[in-house]
Specification:
39% of the residues lie in helices and 14% in strands. The longest helix has 38 residues. The structure holds pyridoxal-5'-phosphate.
Length: 376
Amino acid sequence: MWEEGLGEEDVLKELHAASRKDMKFKDGNILGSMCTEPLAIAKMAHFDFIETNLGNAGLYPGTKLLEDIIIGQLATLLNGEGVSGHIVSGGTEANITALWIARNTTGKKEVIFPKSAHFSFFKACDILSMKPVSVPLTDDFVIDIDKARKKVNKKTAAIVGIAGTTELGMIDSIEELASITPDDAFLHVDAAFGGFVIPFLDDMPKFDFKIPEVSTLTVDPHKMGMATIPSGALLVRNPENIKEIETLAPYLTLFRQTALSGTRGSAAVASTYAAMRALGRRGYSRIVQQCMVVTNYAADKAKSVGLEIVKKPVMNVLGIYMPTAPSKIQAGLDEKGWKVSVATNPECLRLVIMPHVTKQKIDELFADLQEVLAGV
Ligand SMILES: Cc1ncc(COP(=O)(O)O)c(C=O)c1O
């Protein structure tokens, strides 16, 4: 620990030096992250609520009200009028909490999820001593329902479907999963990414609380919700189920907690409120349409330079097959200042076309990609 403190100006200098090393979404070179530059008003709101802590909610009735309003708005967006929930730190915490509730409510320990599920489900199973049961995908990169059906048994605590897979943005058939979910098990939908995308696109399958069997749902405002990090949301259809994870917290103002975190930095609650209030459905719809225009532009561009795309993009995530190991291409692009990622199932280059990515950036990326391809 430093012995002497430093003047504000010098502290800022050190901070700025560190920040200059960081990439910034607004520069448009990050195509491998599911986050983006938050809306300006969301950043302001974050700063204004920097000292709030909903872990001790009795001190912050104003922030608690914002959280309740957000949950209500998300419930309406996702056809779950009356569902309850929490703002949490992101998709990982929401998924862990969902399985925690499922385990405690059902008293069972097996979790069935597709191979495409986010690794947070393995973390959740490890922490909760639950058994992960991974199900292969079909050729369309969604859960193989017949194979999933064979895994269901009397130890099944939860079946998980993904509405917007991390690697390719695919949507499992939640209706089919509902048809194989036993009455005493949970059906959890991970819409961490898709929850702020699917409702704004036409002709999409049902994936949310409109399906009566859906018990819990994850949706992340810090991804396509345009809020600051860390903001995730867990929605729970039956408020009684949340009590299954209630813990006494005697020294705090409300004496009990029903969230994984104790102290919950709640600036992102205000920022989520700000983003949702400022954008409304129309604002999100505009952002999603724009992302899809750029995504389809990137898909066409890939084809025009002789590359094969994995699937017609369902949402703003695009997989492109590479003629050689995608990690090599990724490394070549990295040297040219691009951050793209690779998918493993199938092996391909993965682009996430967030709101900070423009057509011009796609043109520049593909120019560099062709150079990298020519050099391998
Ligand atoms: C579908 C899905 N679920 C969960 C997560 C985990 O979210 P977080 O990184 O906010 O914990 C991600 C992250 O990309 C995701 O794509």
